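S.,

Sequence below, as promised.
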Amino acid sequence: MIHTKLTLSGEYAQIVQRSLEPDNLSSMQTSENSKKVIVQFETNRIGTVLSTIDDYLMNAKIAEDLCSITKTKK
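The prediction came back faster than expected:
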């Protein structure tokens, strides 16, 4: 079993995590503290780890970009 831990930090970390949470795999657990979000999951294959991280980070980037755009337009 491969255990993976991803830590996101920054101004929009909690908003990004909450926006992505509906798409989380059943094996994913998230936790928050101050400006950090920790996402953890387990899988049996390294390819699944790479695909999951790639998808998660791509979607996190989009969510963060939307937060930035929304903030600058106010």
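The longest strand covers residues 2-9.

Coffee later?
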